[in-house]
Amino acid sequence: MKINNYVKVSSVKEAYSILEGSSKATIIAGGAWLRLTPAEIDEAVDLSGLGLDSIDVNDGFVEIGSMATLRQVEKSDIVKSLCNGIVCDAAEKIMGVTVRNIATIGGTISGKYGFSDLITPLMVLDTELEFHERGRVSLVEFMDETAKIRDILLKIRIPMKEGRGWFETIKITAIDFPILNAAVTRIDGKTKIAVGSRPYKAVLAEMAMAYVDTCGKHDADCAERAAMTAIAEIKFGSNSRGSANYRKQLCEALVKRGLREVMS
Amino acid sequence: MKIKLKVNGENKVFDVKADEYLLDTLRKNNYVSVRRGCDNTSCGVCTVLINGNPAASCSYLSCKADGKEITTVEGIPEEAAKIAGFFGREGADQCGFCNPSMALTVYAMKKELVNPTDDDIRSYLVGNLCRCSGYQGQHRAIKAYLEVE
Ligand SMILES: Cc1cc2nc3c(=O)[nH]c(=O)nc-3n(C[C@H](O)[C@H](O)[C@H](O)COP(=O)(O)OP(=O)(O)OC[C@H]3O[C@@H](n4cnc5c(N)ncnc54)[C@H](O)[C@@H]3O)c2cc1C
Ligand code: FES
Ligand code: FES
């Protein structure tokens, strides 16, 4: 990464006006991922002086500032209280503490990385995002969009609802990218299933979710059929970590396991 | 650009480039216990404490560190000597390249975790690689250090 000029902004407004003024201006959060890219940045806009790293409860939502590090997220009792702590489970499986003390939740979501372990559980928690200019949008809608963002992500908002949750990621080593990950929740009688690192970005298994919610009996057979539905509707690809077929088999096993956990 | 850091308790001013990393700033200024391994956040040998938290200095922009407290292993001489003693006794030392980063991470872990289990210790150190030891000796040494301390 090459940077010509570094600006530690003193307001979100200042950050946004720099972004608007130059197509080569870029937000720097932790900077850990950008460091690995060939990006040439005219103005690096550092948000770290804006106090965007708090984790609070507000109006029925857990609000996580976009600059909160993965380590802050993983250690937060507030985040742990959500659906068996699946977001914390996912965060603590990303690299080591020396990276998690740098990388941020905002950088993770803004990058929409296919390999993300964090986006998958956030998708099954009805997460919404709050941007400076755009305002609020659901994470699922945001993930579906292909346009590059020229906005500033301020907060990640997760509704505080009682429910059960389950997350699992499969990696060759603890500090590798995942081969596949999956998250399942059951909140207010509704089931959500997300599958990530396919190796494409995470998606909801909509048909499998609908199947579970119409299943008369939430038993092993229901989990089995839902898992088969999920692998039929989701697209998998191959890379150096695993073939599409291997991922499909992992997905079947993970979805079944996750459903059994949340339905039990 | 000028940045102010408190390194091992001393106030310092460094002139850094916009895309300079803390690892380079520190090494250029003779804090050479901070090692360069992978240079891409994978090995942990460049670990320093930033405001008390272990972080990979190879991937932390120096400008972003402005105003922060940095601790290298020279900043914790007594604890580092104790940890080195346990490593030596358990045969966990070979080339020694990873030792400063391990000592800092173990020191931070001791402050952060209460009565860590074997799994907690392994998980905390997962990003600190050692090419030589096979980790068993280090694990025994760390447990012994935590028990005594
Ligand atoms: C070696 C390595 C291995 C990793 N392995 C994994 C893994 O196994 N699983 C996993 O889930 N993750 C993994 N990650 C990714 C990590 O979890 C983070 O997602 C990643 O580092 C991005 O966070 P950051 O704070 O470093 O973002 P940065 O590098 O600072 O920014 C990333 C992108 O987001 C933009 N951006 C950042 N913040 C905002 C904002 N507030 N508003 C708008 N745009 C913004 C930046 O402009 C940039 O385009 C890995 C990262 C590294 C470096
Ligand atoms: S040199 Fe920084 S993590 Fe390897
Ligand atoms: S002792 Fe050689 S790298 Fe650890």
Topology:
The complex is a heterodimer of chains A (264) and B (149).
Chain A lengths: L1 E7 L3 H10 L3 E4 L11 E7 L8 E4 L2 E5 L4 H6 L1 H4 L5 H6 L5 H4 L4 H7 L7 H5 L4 E4 L3 E4 H6 L8 E7 L3 E9 L6 E10 L2 E7 L6 E2 L1 H9 L5 H14 L10 H20 L1
Parallel strand pairs in A: 1-3, 2-3
Antiparallel strand pairs in A: 4-5, 5-8, 6-7, 6-8, 9-10, 10-11, 11-12
Chain B lengths: L1 E6 L2 E6 L6 H7 L18 E4 L2 E4 L12 E3 L5 H13 L9 H14 L5 H7 L11 H13 L1
Parallel strand pairs in B: 1-5
Antiparallel strand pairs in B: 1-2, 3-4, 3-5
Bound molecules: flavin-adenine dinucleotide and FE2/S2 (inorganic) cluster (2 copies).
One FE2/S2 (inorganic) cluster (FES) binds next to loops of chain B.
Which structural class should the secondary elements of chain B be placed in? alpha+beta
**β content of chain A, as a range?**
25-35%
Q: Which regions of chain A are unreliable across 5 or more consecutive residues at pLDDT < 50?
A: none
> What ranges of chain B have pLDDT less than 50 throughout 5 or more consecutive residues?
none
* Overall structural domain count of chain A: 3
CATH topology of the largest domain in chain B: DNA polymerase, domain 1
CATH topology of the largest domain in chain A: Uridine Diphospho-n-acetylenolpyruvylglucosamine Reductase, domain 3
For the record, what CATH class of the largest domain in chain A applies? Alpha Beta
**CATH structural architecture of the largest domain in chain B:** Orthogonal Bundle
The strand line-up of the biggest sheet of chain B is 2-1-5-3-4
